[in-house]
Amino acid sequence: MRKLLAILTVIFCFGVTAAFAVDGGALYKKRCAKCHRDGTESSKAGGGVVLKGQSSGEISMKMNGYADGSYGGKKKKTMVRIASKLKGQEINAIAEYIGSM
Question: Of 19, 41, 71, 92, which sits with the fewest C-beta atoms within 10 Å of its C-beta?
């Protein structure tokens, strides 16, 4: 009975975690793709920044910097506005998605 309870607890925990997982690809399409396209090119609004090839760590550092205002170039205002609306796990999900491109 204890083994069954332990197994069900583990399954429940993974199920709850999966239910709250953030889809980085969907967020990228919603928040980033308008300017950064598919990551291999960028519109003028995207400041010419190509995201493909950057690691998830680089993207996460930059996005968190935009969110707190400590990072940015010529498109800083736009990125601060976008990044400051994202939660930490959303930034991480987008960064993981971009890092896997």
Answer: 19
Q: SS3 letters for the chain? A: CHHHHHHHHHHHHHHHHHHCCCCHHHHHHHHCHHHHCCCCCCCHHHCCCCCCCCCHHHHHHHHHHHHHCCCCCCCHHHHHHHHCCCCHHHHHHHHHHHHCC
Query: How much is the average pLDDT of 22-32?
Result: 94
pLDDT tens sequence across 54-80 = 999 999 999 999 999 899 877 789 899
